[in-house]
Amino acid sequence: MTNLSEQIESAKSNMTEPLPTPPEMQGEQATPQELLERLNWGEPALTIIDVRDREAFNNERITGAVTMQPGQLPEAATSELEYNRDIYLYGETAESAAGAANQLREAGYQKVAEIQGGLAGWKQVGGPTEGIKAFSSPVS
């Protein structure tokens, strides 16, 4: 009978490919698909920020997103998030997302990516949403 260390060495020698690793943030822009892949890995080390107004946030948002209004940035983030955290951000428009992302970067956050296409782009790749309208069904 072989001992445990021999079994481990045998397994190591038979392994031909590296173990898979979760996707990482690639820059200041992120596709909805990239974020979805990270979430599908069960990636806990990220935060999704919605910088749209409170009504839009309550109606429908990316599942797990938190709301932070551009007028509250970067103070709201500073009290809630670590500077080395991966932050994905979206707004009503690409311009509003870019402005909020720049505020966070200027405050010292190094890993901030704008989600291309915002909520609409997220829904196009089948990303889950929550909120009042996310659960409502069309009236016949």
TrEMBL record:
Region listing for Disordered, in residue ranges: 1-35
What span is annotated as the signal peptide, if there is one?
none
Any Pfam family from its record, for instance, is Rhodanese
Q: Where is the composition biased (Polar residues)?
A: 1-16
CDD domains associated with the record: RHOD
Q: Which residues form the Rhodanese domain?
A: 42-131
Highest taxon in the source lineage: Bacteria
InterPro entries registered for this protein in UniProt:
GlpE_sulfurtransferase (IPR050229), Rhodanese-like_dom (IPR001763), Rhodanese-like_dom_sf (IPR036873)
| Protein name per UniProt | Rhodanese-like domain-containing protein
Species in which this protein is naturally found:
Leptolyngbya iicbica LK
